[in-house]
Amino acid sequence: MKHIRGIIFDLDGTLVTSSLDFLAIKHEIGCPDHEDVLCFLKSLPEQKQHEAMSIIHRHELRDAERSEWMPGARAFVDQCLAENIPMAIVTRNSHHPTRVKIKRNSIPIHRVITRENSKPKPDPSALLQIANDFGLSTYSMLMVGDYKYDLEAGRNAKMHSCLINYPSLPDYHHLADYTFEHFDLLHQAMFK
Questions:
Q1: What does pTM read for this prediction?
Q2: Exposed/middle/buried for 51, CB within 10 Å: 0-12, 13-18, 19+?
Q3: DSSP state, 138?
Q4: What are the tens digits of pLDDT across the range 65-89?
Q5: Distances (CA, A) of 60 to 12, 14, 143, 153
């Protein structure tokens, strides 16, 4: 992993905890269980979109107010800072709850892209923009996340991807170039 010069993190379940109940959100907005929430939103008439976004925002804000650093994540981010490795956050969440999480947890990452700023993952647009902003090749970037959309976005951007923070390997683990059960293992792989 010595070729990694920049890191993009997902936020929820990656850097900080998440208590979002996607099934409850889907039920409340009328989204079928098998469908992606953000794709479903696009299919709604404008008024229904606003109502659904209000519901999602309420869930995201409540989750943000309870968030905590994931074990080992703070030490990893601090080491990246010490090594001058540029970092960014790309999240499918909205701007305000994302800012609440960042402030609540004093996350020292300033480059943040939310769903209002770019097409949501697995679309690679945000990742490619960050690589360009950092002046780095996609090969030298690492997308770190806990869900398939993070890994798919990494692949779509031709970046290495890392699956992190899982109790057992999920069925989409094959999308990851690296898998680490927790940040301490990623820390060892990057810096030891």
A1: 0.94
A2: middle
A3: G
A4: 999 999 999 999 999 999 999 999 9
A5: 10, 15, 22, 22
